[in-house]
Amino acid sequence: MVRPGAGRRLLGFGARRARSRAAAGRAHVDAADRGRAAGPPGLRRAAGARPAAAAGRRHRRRRPRRRRAGPARTVRGAAGPLCAGRPAMSGSVAWATADPYADALRAGRGPLFLRRTDGWLLPLEVERWCGRADPVDLAVLDRCEGAVLDVGCGPGRLVAELAAQGRTVLGVDVSEAAVEHTGQLGGTALRRSVFEPLPGEGRWDTVLLMDGNIGIGGDPAALLERVTRLLRPGGLLIAETVPGHVDERARVEVVAGAATTVRGAAFPWARLGTPALLRYARRAGWRPVAQWEAGGRCFAALRSRSTSNRAEPPNRTAVISSQRVRKPSGESPVASR
């Protein structure tokens, strides 16, 4: 009942119960409402409050509690990794931290492209790189001699295959994801650029530049000179080229799609057909020994100059211990891929 007069009061047993429980600091919930989901915060009434008290007063919304600072959790978003609990990075910072090449290797699939500054796209065969050596690869490996250095080994299918055959082999790649994948396949790889100091320099019997890696650094002449210093005198280089008369240098970036904003930093790259490779090689004193095509892919084999004062072949112990050398400088992962 509500008695008219000065103010409004609740009469009866319910009023006494509400007052007593409110005084005790406990909220009263009717049996019929127990277990129901709470409504929106702005529509809930403080439990135990008297209706008379609510009349003529506005409900004060409670301030949300501040979350305690703690370690940020990595969240993968469309624009790259962000941190929960911290302000989102600006577009330029998120772009700089993106690594679509590493993401594709860890996923084992594309799409992944090299994109020139004019927008031209070159598809990258991530699925083939992340798989096991195919028949075309195996035919190339049959030509390898002695200890093998796979430059730009990527996820390591060739290194793993040679290791399974009991061969002395080392892969080198600037991508941490590529080196990790090589190890998962059972191969040994070193995270380093080919232009940095490497174990066994001047003593390798064979150097591989597969999957278009003759383009590393964007300067084929400089790369051929570097390989000369890695090989023993008269050592063997096997390089994979592109079909046709191609001799191209460009700055490229790795992207996950034609319209994506997730891309790696730009870096110099080259694309060579076999005729162009042979021109560079002859100028540097290399001797062509074979060229062939298989499975839509093109290859050339060359012998290095026969002048060097180091002829001791590398051994497996030296190769494995090389994993403890210093880390490489920052370089685009695809630059040695």
Explain the overall architecture.
This protein is an alpha/beta fold and 337 residues long. It has a domain at 132-249 and 266-336: 3-Layer(aba) Sandwich (Rossmann fold). Helices cover 26% and strands 23% of the residues. The chain contains 11 helices and 13 strands. The strands form 3 sheets. It has a 7-stranded mixed β-sheet, sandwiched between helices. Strands 4-3-10-11 form a 4-stranded antiparallel β-sheet. A two-stranded antiparallel ribbon has the order 1-2. β3 (113-116) and β4 (121-123) form a beta hairpin. α4 runs parallel beside α8. It starts with 12 loop residues before the first helix and ends in a 16-residue tail after the last helix. Mean pLDDT is 74; it is low at 1-57, 67-97, 308-313 and 315-337.
Shape: globular
Strand count, sense and barrel status of the largest sheet are: 7 strands, mixed
- Encode the helix/strand succession as letters: HHEEHHEEHHEHEHEEHEEEHEEH
Mean pLDDT: 74
Low-pLDDT windows of residues: 1-57, 67-97, 308-313, 315-337
The CATH class of the domain at 132-249 and 266-336 is Alpha Beta
Radius of gyration: 33 Å
Structural class by secondary-structure content: alpha/beta
> CATH topology of the domain at 132-249 and 266-336, anyone?
Rossmann fold
Distance between the termini: 84 Å
Proportion of strand residues: 15-25%
CATH superfamily heading of the domain at 132-249 and 266-336: Vaccinia Virus protein VP39
State the helical fraction: 25-40%
